[in-house]
Amino acid sequence: MLLFLFTFLYAGVASTFASSHREAPLTSKDPVADNTDLYAFRSPDDPNTITIIANYIPFELPEGGPNWYTFGDNVRYEIYVDNDATKPGDEIVYRFTFSHTSEDPTTFFNIRLGKENLKTTYKLERSMNGGTSFTTIVAKGTVPPPNIGPRSIESAAGLNTTYNKLMTDAIMTSTTGEKVFCGPVDDPFFVDIAGAFDLGGFRNPYTKGANATRDGVA
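and the corresponding structure tokens:
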């Protein structure tokens, strides 16, 4: 699952609308635009700010090559915020635009010898007038690669780093103060998808072996 996470200063009352899920027929045919969930809440570490989490592209595993999961470069990802419930319309709009670079086109591996294929960056723009005009607040944000495995991430044949550092380095601070992260994460839900769609045959979570329940949400 790919995720946007950012926090911004809280002012007034914010409202949100539920997003589409994978079962929406049209969305399932355009997976890079599949926004599965949107959350907004006062930040537990600072009640004067709001945290917004937007999830995209469900059911993806980090080792899912050779066509790796990523944000679409032909999709306009936007999050609308109604910061004043007494007025119609959305005052604040955040717009994410993604770009990809292949640093080593001689291989089909996603990561090799310190280089990334499908290396992803983004531009974040913000509108304070409902989308009439936009200002760039993150010019070149970094998206960490999928956590394919220890050889790709930690070894000298890969990126020679830790995944924790890649995630930490991808946390951006915008010119207007928002903290922003875009990248792959594990879905917090646990759902036995196989059991659910096998005629509702949910499996016992305490069962071992072939019939053990399995998390179908990556």
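(Above: one complete record from the training split.) The chain has two domains: 2-187, 190-218.
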